[in-house]
From TrEMBL:
It comes from Algoriphagus faecimaris. Gene3D superfamilies: Winged helix-like DNA-binding domain superfamily/Winged helix DNA-binding domain (1.10.10.10). It comes from the Bacteria. This is PaaX-like protein. InterPro entries: ArsR-like_HTH, WH-like_DNA-bd_sf, WH_DNA-bd_sf. GO terms for biological process: regulation of DNA-templated transcription.
Length: 169
């Protein structure tokens, strides 16, 4: 879906990076390395997205750091589109609805950092969770969005979880 709207693969990677997680930030060289792209192709797309107002650039010393422009009128729409592209919204909704007594759900790991590594790591906290359904949804998720799902389950909050809280009571 996203590939039909945006023809630049580098631009898609940047949109996924900055709009899949609200606090994602990056600078030119680290983005080029992360995407395995030339600095020139990343620079061109960063400039286009900044000129369009979708990204903001802030100077941190001699380095320019890029972030999503949260005040842009299309911020929410692009974030939702990226989430749908990744299939995370549907996955989370299904898991929380069908798993049983889910108290809290987090996305952790690379996706929480805004990196599309191909693996979605989740932490579920709850009681009497349906582990058989979890195996089924892992396979379906991979078929649908070509992303591996890894889930850790806890019956109580283990404490300091670093990630995106997607559901909680």
């Amino acid at each position: 879906m996203l590939e039909s709207l945006v023809t630049s693969k580098t631009r898609i990677k940047l949109l996924l990076k900055f709009f899949s997680h609200q606090s994602s930030a990056g600078y030119l060289r680290s983005l080029a390395k992360e995407f395995d792209e030339s600095t020139n192709s990343v620079r061109v797309e960063l400039n286009r997205l900044t000129d369009a107002g979708l990204l903001v650039a802030e100077d941190e010393g001699k380095t320019k750091v890029y972030k999503a422009n949260r005040t842009h009128p299309f911020f929410t729409e692009i974030t939702n589109m990226v989430s749908k592209f990744l299939g995370l919204d549907e996955l989370m909704e299904k898991i929380v609805r069908r798993m049983g007594e889910v108290e809290t759900a987090y996305i952790v790991g690379d996706y929480a950092k805004g990196i599309d590594s191909g693996t979605v790591q989740m932490v579920l906290i709850g009681k009497n969770l349906d582990v058989e359904y979890l195996d089924f949804i892992r396979d379906k998720t991979y078929e649908k969005v070509q992303r591996k799902v890894e889930v850790e389950i806890f019956d109580k909050d283990p404490g300091d979880i670093q990630g995106i809280k997607i559901f909680g009571v």
